[in-house]
Amino acid sequence: MPAKRLKVATFNVNGIRSRLPHLLAWLEKEKPDIACLQELKSVDAGFPIDEIHAAGYGAVWKGQSAWNGVAVLARGVDPVESRRVLPGDAADEQSRYLEVVVHGLVVACLYLPNGNPQPGPKFDYKLEWFDRFITHAASLYASGHPVVLAGDFNVVPTDFDIYDPKSWRKDALLQPESRARYETLLRQGWTDSLRFRHPDERIYTFWDYFRQHWPRNAGLRIDHLLLNDVLAPRLHAAGVDTWVRDLPKASDHAPTWISLDQAPVKAGKATKTVKAVKAAPASRKR
Q1: Domain boundaries, the chain
Q2: CA-to-CA distance for 223 and 27, rounded, in angstroms?
Q3: Measuring CA to CA, how many Å separate 71 from each of 47, 91, 92, 130, 245?
Q4: 126: nearest Cα among 151, 150, 96, 147
Q5: Which one is the CATH code of 5-278: 3.40.50.880, 3.40.50.1100, 3.60.10.10, 3.30.230.10?
Q6: Which tens digit of pLDDT belongs to each residue from 237-263?
Q7: Before 119, cis peptide (omega within 30)?
Q8: Pairing of strands 256-261, 5-12
Q9: Which InterPro entries match (predicted)?
Q10: Are the beta carbons of 253 and 223 closer than 8 angstroms?
Q11: What is the pLDDT of residues 25-37, one digit of tens each?
C-alpha cells in the first residue's frame, strides 16, 4: 500500500467572500488536510463557516473588516486554537497571525505586512512585526513539536525567486532589510520546503494583476512553508497549484503546498502535544 501522507497548504485568497467558489473548488479537487488562508478581508461574522463545514472542513479564523484576516482549515476535524496574536506588541490589532494544533502538527498561519510604500511607517511596521515573529518562531522551533510556519511572508528571498528583479528593486518585498530578516529566520534551522524540493527551478506563488504578469509567468515566490528540524525529515514533496491562478477573477496568489510522510502516533502523544501548546496565552475563537 502507498504511504499515507499529510498535505499542508497556504493560500492568500485575497477576499474569501468574492473568491469562495475558487476556494471550494480547490478544496474539493486537491483535498489539503490543512489549509492556511490569508487576506480574508472579512469580519469574523462574515466568515463562510457553513460552506466550509459543507466542504468537510473545520476552521479557526480571525477576521478584520476590509483588510487582513487569517484562517486555518482542517479536513475532517476542528483545529485546536493555541494563539491568535503574535506576542510582543499588545497594541497591534491587525489580524495577521493564528496558531493551531491539528493533525499532530503545530501550525502557525501568518500574513506578514507588505511594507509598501517604503521607506515610511508601513515599512517600519513590517520590520518590527518581522522581528517579533523571529523571536516567537525561535520558541516554536525549540518546542520539540513538529512545527510548520505557513503563509504569505511578503518577502522575495533572492533574485532567483522573481522573474526580473530590476523593476522591483524599490519594493518592500525585495529590500535588503526584509531579505535579511528572512535569512535570520532560516538560520534558526527552518527548512524552506518549496526551495528545498525545487533547488534549481524558478517557481512562483504570486503574479501581479498588472502588465500581463500571469500570462507571461512573470511571478514572485512570496508564499512559504517552513519546517523545523522535527518535521523536516518527513517532507515528501512541495508544489504550487497554479491552475487556481488561471480561474476567472482569481486571487493573485496560487495555493502552495507540501506533503508530509505520516509519523506514527504513540498513545497519548497527540493529547500531550495539544496540552503543551495550549498552555501558551490565547483567547477563544470569536
Answers
A1: 5-278
A2: 18
A3: 9, 21, 18, 19, 20
A4: 96
A5: 3.60.10.10
A6: 999 999 999 999 999 999 999 999 987
A7: yes
A8: antiparallel
A9: AP_endonuc_1, Endo/exonu/phosph_ase_sf, Endo/exonuclease/phosphatase, ExoIII-like
A10: yes
A11: 999 999 999 999 9
The model's pLDDT over 207-235, given as tens digits with 9 standing for 90+, comes to 999 999 999 999 999 999 999 999 999 99
Spatial CB neighbours of 114, under 8 Å, sequence gap ≥ 6: 122, 126, 154, 172, 173
Query: How many other CB atoms are there within 10 angstroms of residue 189's CB atom?
Result: 14
- pTM for the model stands at 0.91
Give the mean pLDDT of the chain.
92
Provide the percentage of residues in the chain whose pLDDT is more than 70: 91
- Sequential DSSP letters for the chain: -PPPEEEEEEEE-S-TTTTHHHHHHHHHHH--SEEEEE---S-GGGS-HHHHHHTTEEEEEE--SSS--EEEEEETS--EEEESS-TT-TT-----EEEEEETTEEEEEEE-----SSSSHHHHHHHHHHHHHHHHHHHHHTTSS-EEEEEE-----SGGGBS-SGGGTTSGGG-HHHHHHHHHHHTTT-EEHHHHH-TT----SB--SSTTTTTTT--B--EEEEE-TTTGGGEEEEEE-GGGGGSTT--SB--EEEEEEPPP--TTHHHHHHHHHHTS--PPP-
For helices 121-141 and 176-186, what crossing angle results, to 10°? Answer: 10
pLDDT at residue 214, as a whole number:
98
